[in-house]
Design goal:
- The chain is of the alpha+beta class.
- It has 3 helices and 9 strands, in the order βββααββββββα.
- The strands form 2 sheets. The chain has a 5-stranded antiparallel β-sheet. A 4-stranded mixed β-sheet has the order 1-9-8-7, covered by helices on one side.
- Helix 1 runs antiparallel to helix 2.
- The radius of gyration is 16 Å and the shape is globular.
Length: 151
């Protein structure tokens, strides 16, 4: 941003977009890349949103939660975090390499049933990964790479 404000994006929209076709599945990883965690957004978030969906004011948030559960996946490897978006309207893959991450923070949601992760990048941008089931384990995993890079 030219006015000096910091950028904050949700769902890794400012991360490096993979050069693969949106219809291609990102299943072929480099031979030295190992998957630590792969999964959808938190099921508990979906259940809580569906229960709260009986209130008319919460319906838009319920719709977003359903869409996120159906069409967004996360993959944490030993080199990067991949965000796979597969909605009928937008098919994108985003990569956040650990070498670009300077800080990682998690925020518990709904008494800790799930959590959000905020990755601060070198350029000051913040990437939010929403509704992670094992958010504390994933935070420790990513923080290990960030700490190793600092040494």
């Amino acid at each position: 941003m030219q006015d000096g404000t910091k950028r904050h994006r949700t769902c890794a929209c400012n991360a490096v977009e993979d050069d693969k076709s949106p219809d291609e599945e990102v299943e072929t990883l480099p031979w030295d890349e190992k998957v630590y965690y792969e999964g959808k957004t938190a099921t508990s978030e979906l259940v809580v949103s569906l229960l709260l969906g009986v209130f008319v004011l919460y319906l838009p948030l319920t719709a977003v939660s359903i869409g996120r559960y159906l069409w967004q996946n996360y993959k944490f490897t030993n080199r990067r975090v991949l965000v796979l978006q597969r909605s009928p309207f937008s098919k994108k893959n985003f990569s956040i390499f650990y070498k670009d991450v300077v800080d990682v923070v998690t925020i518990p949601r709904c008494l800790g049933l799930w959590g959000d992760m905020i990755l601060t990048l070198k350029d000051g941008a913040k990437v939010t990964l929403v509704a992670l089931d094992d958010y504390t384990d994933l935070r420790d995993y990513v923080a290990g790479f960030v700490e190793r890079k600092r040494k």
